[in-house]
Amino acid sequence: xxxxxxxxxxxxxxxxxxxxxxxxxxxxxxxxxxxxxxxxxxxxxxxxxxxxxxxxxxxxxxxxxxxxxxxxxxxxxxxxxxxxxxxxxxxxxxxxxxxxxxxxxxxxxxxxxxxxxxxxxxxxxxxxxxxxxxxxxxxxxxxxxxxxxxxxxxxxxxxxxxxxxxxxxxxxxxxxxxxxxxxxxxxxxxxxxxxxxxxxxxxxxxxxxxxxxxxxxxxxxxxxxxxxxxxxxxxxxxxxxxxxxxxxxxxxxxxxxxxxxxxxxxxxxxxxxxxxxxxxxxxxxxxxxxxxxxxxxx
Length: 298
Fold this sequence. Notes:
Layout: E1 2-5, E2 8-11, H1 12-27, H2 35-45, E3 58-61, E4 71-75, H3 80-88, E5 93-96, H4 113-124, E6 127-130, H5 133-137, H6 142-147, E7 152-156, E8 159-160, E9 167-168, E10 170-174, H7 182-193, E11 199-201, E12 214-221, H8 223-226, E13 234-239, H9 242-250, E14 254-257, H10 267-278, E15 284-287
Parallel strand pairs: 4-5, 4-15, 5-6, 12-13, 13-14
Antiparallel strand pairs: 1-2, 3-6, 7-10, 8-9, 10-12, 11-14
Pfam family, one: DUF34_NIF3
Keywords: Metal-binding
Family: Belongs to the GTP cyclohydrolase I type 2/NIF3 family.
């Protein structure tokens, strides 16, 4: 049997293949690039092996039926609102800095929010990738973005990784001829992160007019990393335990805290441009509008 389509004829046995191809073309599935190309670009920037051993990084959700990627949503934390935002904006992939899947999931049901997210991603065929500590470690990653708040002439990891340029945290030597003071450090951090307020714990005997000659920083919850930095004037991180802050200030170290994810989120805007360029502008890379730190200063 033959079926007429315009001026052409198709054998019925080929008709299903034809309609499948046309369906893909009309839905945009022939556009974009493959998942493997995006993952390769991500791991070119920050190889997965740079992640801490305890971390859960890499490709975390891969739906059964593959599709090409035309739009990627970047987020610091993957909440239900962010997942729905990705669906509404027709994104085929989410890159979530923090891995939403950390502890093993024993079921995928609707009674728990993380399981609902995984269920939604599988249903809507959205891939999920998380880089977390590989982005912290790599040169040009989250910690180096945070360091850009300061005028420094030397930066090294606090805990070195596989080489002298990768690892946890950053130790900065402030430029010698710069009269850089604590109050300037506060304003610089606020300008970089876009925050109206940060928390400041002044070192014993210090005022905001005292000079800063060295900085130790770690994005996120950096208390355990910053303890490894000795003889430093200033700690910068997202959050620290009360007793760690108290110990630091009594040892002559001023502490600036931004809230956990506010020390990380600002990196995404610049990375969106980098990833779009790496993918030769074949993929639109956007930053979530719903993603925000759960804590507000009121």
